[in-house]
Amino acid sequence: MPPVTATRCVDFEERRDRAMALFAEKGFGQVSMRELAAHIGLTAGSLYHHFPSKQDLLYDLIEELYEELQATLEQGRRAMARGESALSCLIAAHWQLHAERPLQFRLAERDICCLSEQQQMQLALLRERYEARLLSMIAPQASLQGDARMATAHVVANLLNQLPAMLKRLPEQQGLGLMESLLLGGIERTLR
Predict the structure, then answer these.
(1) How far is Cα 96 from Cα 118, in angstroms, rounded to an integer?
(2) Which of 68, 78, 88, 102 is most exposed by smallest CB count within 10 Å?
(3) pTM for this one?
(4) Three-state SS for 45?
């Protein structure tokens, strides 16, 4: 196997981006492996070498997004260590991530149902871990337990992950400020 070079990594990233764009444009279920291979500049056989199925590619794209979301929590932890607001840092990090990966957010919301049950369960575990860490970071005194705590974490995560798309027409600082106001207001009222 030839060594991994910067050019090969860039080619792979560009192909993944083209695959995401095709899935986002046509819908995951409407794209065949042959069409996908042609769209990204590979033969079908070569594509199958990298990904045994479209579902495996979609799973990798969504899993990568959850890994990036976990990394935003690390940014929030570092902000807290510096005495800064974790929530402000997390809002900015989610805004930036959404700007960099809007198609992955769309695929994660819209096409996760196209994955196998096992893949959906694995992603659900990643999401639950992310949501639990998120809520513990921004509302450590929350007295909610069980299903109420999980539901609150889910709502807060959804707001962080969907508001950037809803507010993208606003200037960045205005959008960030509005997100912070919405989240702070909701968190304060819910977690009293």
Answers:
(1) 30
(2) 78
(3) 0.83
(4) helix
